[in-house]
Structure formats: structure tokens, C-alpha cells
Amino acid sequence: WQYCLSESFVGDKYPKLPLYVSFLYQQSVVPLVRGLKFGGKRELGMLIGTLLSKCMMSDSVDADLIIPIPLSEKRLRERTYNQAGVIASVCAMNLHIPYAEDVLVRNRNTNKQAECKTNEERYTNIMNAFSMNESWDVSELRIILVDDVVTTGNTMHEAATVLLDAGAKAVLCCAFASNRLVKNGDCY
Is the dihedral angle over the CA atoms 25, 26, 32, 33 positive or is it negative? Predict the structure, then answer.
């Protein structure tokens, strides 16, 4: 448990947005995530989702709805599936919480966050990248927002801000692994 953003910023409407992470992005976790994300091994998402949901169960994490961080259309075409969606759907099934993949919309293609060199670049890259699907009303819902890996938290924070601004009662940002302590082999 920690705050979503690794570095807060002046004017943040949600500075104490919670983040739940089950594993560090190191050792045996790295090939699991890379295989799911870049190797086309969708079945690894089932394992990752099971591991994450077991951790969440042991900590009594609960909500009204589970949703994934949406991919851009370009990345979805490249991968053929949303890795966060696979993980989130397994979590939802195991936790007996409704799942929806179309609550948030990715407005535009962004650069890969991992290619951004500074926290400021990551923040700017993801700013205004998400919006609400107009057919959804999230008023007073407690939502778990799921992604595979979190580093600075900018992606999760941006998506959670959209949900909270749309009336969600609470958003728990949740990732399978955290790369917050190490980024490209150096202290981050």
C-alpha cells in the first residue's frame, strides 16, 4: 500500500490516491509480465490475475467494479489483447466483483511510458489521454483500476482522476508489479 504518484505535484486534486501492488518488478516477475505484454502469451495474464487476486483477497480488498487501464487502438492492434484487461477480468472473477472494460476510453495514442526519461515527461505524455465512456455512470461506485506494472503512477493517476471527476466514490489503483524502486537498472 502506498500513494499512487511517486512524486506528487502542486495542484493535485487527489494527492492521497491509494495504490495496491502485490509484487516488485524483479526476478521471476519480469519474464511473466514481458511474456504477457510483448510475447503474446495471454495465458500468463490468467496466472498474473490469479496471483494478484489472491493477494487482494488476503487483504480484504473489495469494490463495486473492476476496470482495466485501456490501451490505445494502435497498441491493441499490435498485441491483439489488453494485458491489463486480462489481469483485471481474472481478478474480477476471483473476487466476485463485476468487470467492465469499456468504462474508460483511451483518447489518443501516447508514447510508451517506459521510454519517457523523466517523471515530468511521463506526466505530460499521459495527460488527458483518458475520458469516460458516456454510456457509463460511475456515480458513488468504488472502483478498482488495474494495470500490469506501475512505476511513477502517472498513468493510473490520470485514469483515476477521470473516474473520480465523473463521480466515483473511490478508486483503488492496483498493479501486479511495481517498478518504482528500479527503472532501467538505476535508482528511479
Answer: positive
